[in-house]
Amino acid sequence: MSTIAETDELFAEANGLTLCWQGFGEPADPALLLIMGLGAQMILWEDDFCRALAARGYYVVRFDNRDIGRSSQITAAPPDLARFFSGAEPLRAPYTLSDMAKDTVGLMDALKIDRAHIVGASMGGMIAQTVAIERPARVRTLTSIMSTTGERGLPPPRPEVWAAMTAPPPLTVEAFIEANVRVAELLRGFPDAAEEAAARKRAARAAQRGLNPAGGVRQTAAIFASGSRKEALAQVKAPTLVIHGSDDPLVPVEAGRATAHAIPGAKLVEFDRMGHTLPRALWPALIDAIAAHAR
């Protein structure tokens, strides 16, 4: 791969917040915006993944969502999800996915990006769908990866994975790294020494960039407070690609199929030996699919 231009980590004012972002490639190329998932910093779109997409002729922008990484942290107290899930009290979410979609569009405004190819993974896919629903003129194409419509009745996560995702946050950097490595293996679905080493390196980098465990709780609340997008997705006009792993233990593949079914004309691509991660072995196929769809 030839050398790809990239910015440092920069900051932009968007929707009343400060978002940390980074660009790969040439700003004159069509913009391709990457939105990451629940409690996940932008670096889960790994550097070489972004460079490979930029090498296909796109200006690739990744960013930290609100309440994660180096972007603005929300000061509202996180809701008690355990009491909500038990039915003991209603959910009081400080913000919704619609607010996070406005963050995304606000970042596009700040970067003077009129329209973009929007690619979201997991919660990022939910945000991307919401942008396509609420601000369709800003979306060239939509790619929703390992995500869902939010409708009731779809298969739930595997209990051990949900338990790990909702466990009390680690209190030290060392515990954070070990917990992240463990969760990554559960989401991946199989042991892999190279993937484990990459997960450990990412977790150390995330800890250095800044930890905000309460942000993940507020983001979880945003997902549940936003409800189903199933009916609204029927109005999406952007050409849509849905990518899902057949072995996803957190958002089972039925959710990807439901997403593709809900969006008129959407194309569904399922990958074997893909859980709820972007495994390096599948990078060439994933990048091919994303780039070909945007083309």
Short note summarizing the structure:
This protein is α/β, with parallel strands linked by helices and 295 residues long. Helices cover 40% and strands 16% of the residues.
Secondary structure elements and their pairing?
Layout: E1 10-14, E2 17-24, E3 31-35, H1 47-54, E4 59-63, H2 81-85, H3 97-110, E5 116-121, H4 123-134, E6 139-145, H5 159-165, H6 173-188, H7 193-209, H8 213-226, H9 230-233, E7 240-245, H10 253-262, E8 267-271, H11 283-294
Parallel strand pairs: 3-4, 3-5, 5-6, 6-7, 7-8
Antiparallel strand pairs: 1-2, 2-4
Helix pairs in contact: 3-4, 5-6, 6-7
Tell me the CATH architecture: 3-Layer(aba) Sandwich
The protein's oligomeric status is single chain
Spatial strand arrangement across the major sheet: 1-2-4-3-5-6-7-8
Average pLDDT number: 95
| Highest CATH level, the class | Alpha Beta
> Stretches where pLDDT falls below 50 for ≥5 residues?
none
Q: What is the 3D shape?
A: globular
Share in β-strands: 15-25%
CATH topology: the name is Rossmann fold
Given helix and strand content, the structural type is: alpha/beta
Report the radius of gyration as a whole number of Å.
18 Å
Assigned CATH superfamily: Alpha/Beta hydrolase fold, catalytic domain
Note the main sheet: 8 strands, mixed
Order of helices and strands: EEEHEHHEHEHHHHHEHEH
Number of helices: 11
Q: Termini distance? A: 20 Å
How much helicity do the residues have?
A: 40-55%
Domains (count): 1
